[in-house]
Every structure is written in C-alpha cells, then in structure tokens.
Design brief:
The protein has 318 residues and is of the alpha/beta class. The protein is built from eleven helices and eight strands. The chain binds adenosine-5'-triphosphate and magnesium ion (MG).
C-alpha cells in the first residue's frame, strides 16, 4: 500500500500526471484509487467521467476507482459531530463569547477543512481496499498549507488541551471530583488523527510526493521553493517530472528547434537545482491530454511506484 501525491504550480499538469499514472497502474493490475483534494476538482474532466465525493469504480478501466473529496462536506459533517465539544472546550477555557467562538470555529480557520480531506484519505487507506492511492493536490500554495496543517493542528490541540486542563483543575478543586467529558475524548482522537496523518506523510516506505514542473524560469523558481518546503516538512520527495518538453526530433521546424534549445538549457537548470531528485521529462502532446487513450499515450513512468522499494533511482533523464 502506497500513497503518491502529485503537486506543483498551477497548470503544470498535476491532474494529468495523476490520472495518467492511475490509468496505467490499474492497467498493470494494481488496485488503484485516484483521489482529488483540490477544491477545484478536475478528475472528471481528465477521465471524461463524472466523479463524485464517494469512492466509485471507473467504467472502462478495470482496477481503477476515484473520488473527489469534498472538504467542505466533510467539515460540515465534522462540525455536526464535534461542534458542541469544541465550543465547550473554548468556552470553559477562555473569556470569549459565543460570537467570537463561532468566528473561530468556522471554515476560515486556515486549513481545518483540508485536514478533513486527509482524515478521510487516511480512513480510506485503513480499509486496505487498494494497493495504490494517488492524490491530486491543489496548486502549490494551497497544497503546502494542507501539508503544513498537521503541525498547525497539533499546536491548536495543545492550546485547547491546556484550556481543558486549567478548567478541569479549577472544577476538581471546587467540586472535589474528577471530571471526564467527551471534550477530552475528542482532543485525544484529534491528536491521534493528526499523528497518523503526519506519520503517513513522512514515511518514505508508504508515501512520496512527486513534484511536477514545466521548463519555464518562473515555474522552476516556484518548484524550488516547493521542494525546499517539502524537505522542511520532512515529506519524502524523490522525483521531478518536467512536463511539456518539446521533442528533439522536430525536423525542419525552426520554431520547434528554438523552443527545444531554450528548454534544453532550462532542463539543465533543473538538473543543477535538484541534484537530489530523479528527473523525468514528459513530452508536450499536440492535443489536450484527456480520456483514457491519451492518458495512456503520455507514458507516465509508473514503474517508479511498482518497482521494489529502495531500488536505486537512476539519475538520468529518460
Ligand atoms: N504533456 C502535455 N501535452 C499537452 N497538453 C498537456 C500536457 N500535460 C498537460 N496538458 C494539458 O494542460 C492542461 C492543464 O493540465 P492539468 O489540468 O493536468 O494541470 P494542473 O497542474 O492539474 O492544473 P491546476 O493547477 O489548475 O490543477 C490540461 O488541458 C491538460 O490536458
Ligand atoms: Mg489540477
């Protein structure tokens, strides 16, 4: 069982790579689940099939299932289930009034909706119904917020726990009795969930983040920031896909030749910038890459995810 996240700047081809890899991995007999955590879902578009917020089998590709996680929907469910407990914790520990608490406890808490998406993913993985889980993430900034979230949430839980502790201390002194409320259970459960997400994302045997980029100076600069940030978060990154490369076999086309020359220089820049990563270039296709046939033709290097773990990664550009 393995989780592969696809991330990068907007429009570089994350959804296309995730979908292409999913179709080919399923073709090779792996039970594959393709998941989108990008609020602007586009798996339906890429696979040319309507995909909803529940796991569903993809018609036309054996072994492939997909879902587009609705973080907002999960968050509402979560609020229904735990809202009262969180409010109670906040009320007992602070001098905030109801209104403040409502503000605090809303979707605007940065990333709380997204942790819901990861929680759902972890739960799906625990069912072990698939061999591989591929996650299409939102464009860079957003994806980073999602990945940094377990740390933020951890902090949040610490603060809440401290509030609970103070409250419990006061109450037990006054009432001379130990109290245990569902709010405490909630904190422990959240803490466990956060740990689980963190553990999964940082385990190189179970998870890797494939970074997608294109040969453009600005995009490479942002890719560098993403790779640095992922290293800081201790998320394993081993490979970089350089998408939309023009072919060196361009015949007499002067335009293509010039583009190829420029891209070649930028590819070398990528090699210098990311010496620790295996680079792979994907060719620019003459058409949009949508639907099973074209996704297969992209020939995404899926051997990456099925070769035995720990096999030596070749540094060469395919
Ligand atoms: N190698 C390629 N050749 C030609 N077209 C491509 C290639 N890769 C991706 N595309 C096209 O580029 C467009 C953007 O790709 P995609 O949606 O995968 O990017 P993305 O990184 O997921 O975007 P977003 O950041 O908006 O989620 C799509 O229309 C896709 O078909
Ligand atoms: Mg996308």
């Amino acid at each position: 069982m393995k989780l592969v996240l696809f991330g990068g700047k907007g429009g570089v081809g994350k959804t296309t790579c995730a979908s292409a890899a999913a179709v080919q991995l399923a073709d090779a007999g792996n039970r594959t689940l393709l998941v989108s955590a990008d609020p602007a879902h586009s798996l339906s578009d890429s696979l040319e099939q309507e995909i909803g917020p529940e796991v569903q089998k993809i018609e036309g590709v054996t072994n492939l299932s997909a879902l587009e996680i609705s973080a907002e929907r999960l968050f509402l469910k979560f609020k229904e289930e735990h809202g009262e407990e969180i409010k109670r914790i906040l009320e007992t520990g602070t001098y905030l009034d109801e209104g403040d608490i409502d503000d605090l406890f809303s979707l605007s808490i940065p990333g709380l909706d997204e942790v819901m998406a990861f929680k759902e993913l972890v739960e799906l993985m625990e069912r072990e119904e698939h061999d591989l889980y591929l996650l299409d993430t939102a464009p860079t900034g957003h994806a980073l917020r999602l990945l940094a979230l377990p740390e933020l949430l951890d902090e949040w839980i610490r603060v809440l726990a401290r509030m609970r502790y103070k409250y419990r201390y006061v109450v037990s002194r006054l009432a001379r009795r130990e109290i245990h409320e569902s709010a405490d259970d909630f904190l422990f459960t959240m803490k466990r969930t956060v740990r689980k997400i963190q553990g999964l994302l940082r385990d190189p045997d179970r998870c890797e983040f494939v970074v997608v980029t294109i040969p453009e100076t600005m995009v490479i600069a942002e890719t560098r920031r993403l790779v640095e940030e992922l290293a800081r978060l201790k998320i394993p990154v081993r490979r970089l896909v350089v998408n939309r490369m023009v072919s060196s076999e361009h015949g007499a086309c002067a335009f293509c030749h010039e583009r190829w020359q420029e891209q070649r220089g930028l590819l070398q820049e990528c090699e210098r910038a990311f010496p620790q990563l295996t680079l792979f270039k994907l060719l620019e296709r003459p058409h949009q890459v949508k639907g099973f046939q074209r996704l297969r033709e992209l020939q995404f290097p899926v051997r990456w995810f099925i070769e035995p773990l720990g096999a030596p990664a070749d540094r060469s550009i395919a």
